Amino acid sequence: MKGLLFTYALTYGGAVVSLFNPWYGLLIYICFATVRPDSLWFWSVPVGNYSRIVAMGLLVGWGLHGFGNWSFGRARPIVYALLAFWAWSILCGVFADNSAAAWGFVESKSKIFLPFLVGATLIDSLDRVKQLAWVLVLSQGYVAYDLNMAYCDGFNRLMEAGFGGMDNNCVSISMVAGVGLAFFLGIAESLWWRKLLAFAAAALMTHVPMFGMSRGGMLGLIVTGVVAFWLIPKEPKQYAVFALAVVVALSLAGPPVVARFATVFASKEERDQSAQSRLEQWRDCWRAMLDHPVVGVGPDNWVSAQRNYGWSRGADGRPVGLEAHSLWFTTGAEMGFPGIGFLLAFYGFAVLRPWRAIQDGFFTDFWATHLARMTIASIAGFCTAVSFVSLEGLEFAYYVVLIGCGVLMLACEEPRAEDGARRTENGGRRTEGGSRRAEVGPLTTDN
């Protein structure tokens, strides 16, 4: 009953609030995209258009408030790469054999790309970026808590039923994208209860890929851990926190988890059918990229195009209808080299631009630095994990990138064209005409 009240209150209340302050409507939309109320509380919340209702209010409110600010500063390459990928998917859909599947892909991705664009135009302070980070961590952390509780009660819901239309691998990878966020949020917060909440969420998310038996998820967690160790402040207390996190993660990984992960490195003779099928799919996706280098076989068309590469429905042949189990190979096969190039640029810039800003000392605020670190760690782990799963529609990862965009837009001092001098010391951002995007005041905030 609580889930139903929560869902209805945020749905209709959020739609109304969005008309006056679309930012809060966006946060509610992102929360719903993560917790998926009709899946999380399936026993009390009927299937409905909750996110759509909030989105309608959000878009109307966005329009009433002038469609935000379109000066993206140092985040321009990230935003433009996503817009290019969006436009390219539409172009590829025109040439796709299975047009219904292609346009279905375009429609579903528009529900992700448009809110991302709305968010990029509405972020005008680091407080808003912090709010976004907490909404993502709390939403994903609650899903992880629910799945962990079911597992501890003896029912591995993730393996048996999945969550929100995603199987164990997809859910595990979404958790990987949240671990870096929660870990650095715990480091950055000064209040003990907020630290505890963030670290607890990180632990719960870390456990999900383990009982979900996702090899890609486990590998993504390792990469997240390595990158996080590389990024943490070089202080004894931070090393102690990281060491404790490693101990907790290792304690959660029992012998079955270790044995499952070890199959990642199995020889050809020892590979299971799932691993062998992945390698065959990747090889044929590469062949499709060479055969259709510009527009690919069409968005969401690889499953039907497989039969052109030796996959068949016959019992003696390789069964058609399998996903390629790699976001990168799937995108390349379906949208050609330009499509995979735009997507790699989107995630690549989301890692490289914040990292370069940290190295060059552009961040002048404690929180900005940690928000950049959490983006880098989370996206690095995510990009590793999706190398083994065709997870094109995970909204969570796009909103993690939005955190990085917000920090780059607000907290970086960009050189002036005429003399290379840095911009304002308070992190305010200038528009093309030289006026500030918003007078946000000092970037340091009290907790």
Helix content: 55-70%
The number of distinct helices, counting runs of at least 4 residues, comes to 18
> Globular, elongated, flat, extended or rod-shaped: what is the shape?
globular
Q: How much of the residues is beta strand, in percent?
A: under 5%
Termini gap: 33 Å
Strand order of the largest sheet: 1-2
* pLDDT averaged over residues: 85
The low-confidence parts are 413-447
Helices and strands, in order, run as HHHHHHHHHHHHHHHEEHHH
Structural Rg: 22 Å
Whole-number tally of structural domains: 2
- Let me know the number of strands: 2
Structural class based on helices, strands and sheet pairing? mainly alpha
Major pleated sheet: 2 strands, parallel
